[in-house]
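HUMAN: Would you supply a protein with fold tokens?

ASSISTANT:
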Amino acid sequence: MNREQGKTPRQRIAVFGLGRFGFGLAVRLAELGADVLAVDSSNELVEEVDQRVSRAVCLDAANEFAVSKLDLDSIDLAVVCIGRNIEAGLLVTAVLQRLGVKEIWVRAIDQNQAQILEAMGVRRILSIEKEMAREVAQNIVMPGTQVLAPITADHSLAEVKAKPAFVGKTLHQLDFRNRYGVNVVAIKSREVATGPEGPEKVEVRINYLPHADDVIEEGDVLVVVGPDEKMAALQANH
């Protein structure tokens, strides 16, 4: 099997605000392989997250001059997670827009803030309550599937554990697109790194853009994109 694929550049994401949601988001993005810049005005929170992301910076994100020093030109996406300080969240969003950040997602606390953000031209507004409800619903109807990111109202990028029926078969044989209605965009495999004194640790290897002749192995996790209803059917299909 051809597991050695050319690695694609890591997505660069800036997270502004390290409250409970922002902190968890920054850490999870880093775990998923993103190059994460975490920003907060609390030195304590910045120090806490520093070893878990690519870079952590303590500054007032409403200060346009300070934020301009962060080299945001190379950022693919900025996520504003400014707790319950609505004014601060709007100010940071405006600063990022003025500095030319192309893709900005913002957490909205209530409908009024969401409407203001819509008027500001923000493309993706995060409602934590709605996102949590969506996640719970997906966990109910798609057990064994971990949704990584919603793409549209009914399409997602998700991780699906390879079922025993998939093991030993190639992607061509399984024909996920025509048989299950989803596309496999990556395969995550766990390998034990051994040393002179035996097993040391488990490493996760990612096969980006796998070939049709790549074989599914036991323990693999498939990263798929497609309609939520198809992913539910994929898990239920034996």
